[in-house]
């Protein structure tokens, strides 16, 4: 099986009836990069920039960040690398930037912090842009977006950073900018948000947690955390439909994207890109290459009227077994 999965590396990720979907990877450290290239990743859908911040004991300087980001961009060039702006708070802590709150997941997190501290945001975005000089494969992604105002403000800062970087003499192209949909409020504003950006990416880990009101890290309620909950699937379908209505590319970069059982329904919903941990990539590709788009659409239609996560999961699992 290992050898079989290995031969998959250079084969296209398309269904039996030639529907293509891109399989990208999530990265944090350089080790992830090498593993990903080894498995034939076509791009990075989520580079978690918190990781290089977490392994330091102070904020990395613009120059340090630039060097770190350049390694990522260079390793994948000319393939795109989606760099998420700092997403700390919630479950991601920096020892040198402590945040004490009763409800961290509903508190100061992600874009909320960086818009309150534009100096952190500007340094990071400038470092990303400088790192992309001559490579032009950078995409910038904003986490925890709840409304259009945040995107407007972030865009203003991104344009300012771009102006500053050009003033300093760097020759860079303006990167594509996208937002994560991971808060229920954003689900209902997908079309408005899509009009403001170049791409949309679903953070299904947080989206599931917020739709179901189940802490993603609390063992006591872990059996209530259902990525296959009908409400979660309705949200995922709505996001894909609404993004496409605005002709904007839509991806998913939460854990669900790397679940081979989810692949047929995400494909049928029209997701353009699935971004996952590199270990999942061969398995998901294997599933995609062994099903057809029309078959997954019929399966999706059945699944969307089922009323429990267990039934939905087993329906897909059985259908996949039947399909061989
Ligand atoms: C998500 O929320 O699904 C996601 C991809 O981001 P993170 O897991 O880093 O919060
Ligand atoms: Mg998230």
Automatic annotation (TrEMBL):
Keyword Transport set for record: yes
GO molecular function: kinase activity; metal ion binding; phosphoenolpyruvate-protein phosphotransferase activity
Example of a GO biological process term: phosphoenolpyruvate-dependent sugar phosphotransferase system
GO cellular component annotations of the record: cytoplasm
Location in the cell: Cytoplasm
Keywords: Cytoplasm, Kinase, Magnesium, Metal-binding, Phosphotransferase system, Sugar transport, Transferase, Transport
Top-level division of the source organism's lineage: Bacteria
Assigned protein family: Belongs to the PEP-utilizing enzyme family.
Name of this chain's protein: phosphoenolpyruvate--protein phosphotransferase
Species for this entry: Litoribrevibacter albus
């Amino acid at each position: 099986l290992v050898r079989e999965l290995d031969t998959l590396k250079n084969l296209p990720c398309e269904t039996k009836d030639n529907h293509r979907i891109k399989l990208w990877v999530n990265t944090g450290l350089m080790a992830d990069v090498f593993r990903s290239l080894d498995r034939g990743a076509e791009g990075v859908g989520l580079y978690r920039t918190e990781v290089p911040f977490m392994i330091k004991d102070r904020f990395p300087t613009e120059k340090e960040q630039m060097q770190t980001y350049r390694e990522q961009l260079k390793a994948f060039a000319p393939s795109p690398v989606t760099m998420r702006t700092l997403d700390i708070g919630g479950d991601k802590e920096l020892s040198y930037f402590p945040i004490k709150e009763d409800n961290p997941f509903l508190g100061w997190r992600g874009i909320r912090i960086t818009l309150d501290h534009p100096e952190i945001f500007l340094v990071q975005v400038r470092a990303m842009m400088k790192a992309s000089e001559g490579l032009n494969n950078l995409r910038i992604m904003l986490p925890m977006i709840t409304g259009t105002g945040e995107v407007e403000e972030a865009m203003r800062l991104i344009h300012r950073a771009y102006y500053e970087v050009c003033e300093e003499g760097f020759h860079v192209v303006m990167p594509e900018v996208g937002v994560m949909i991971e808060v229920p409020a954003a689900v209902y504003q997908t079309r408005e948000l899509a009009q403001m950006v170049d791409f949309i990416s679903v953070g299904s880990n947080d989206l599931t947690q917020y739709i179901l009101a189940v802490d993603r890290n609390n063992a006591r309620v872990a059996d209530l955390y259902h990525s296959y909950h009908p409400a979660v699937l309705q949200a995922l379908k709505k996001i894909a439909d609404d993004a496409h209505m605005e002709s904007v590319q839509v991806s998913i970069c939460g854990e669900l994207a790397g679940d081979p059982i989810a692949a047929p329904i995400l494909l049928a919903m029209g997701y353009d890109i699935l971004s996952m941990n590199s270990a999942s990539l061969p398995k998901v590709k294997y599933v995609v290459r062994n099903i057809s788009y029309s078959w997954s659409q019929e399966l999706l239609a059945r699944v969307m009227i089922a009323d429990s996560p267990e039934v939905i999961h087993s329906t897909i699992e059985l259908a996949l077994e039947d399909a061989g």
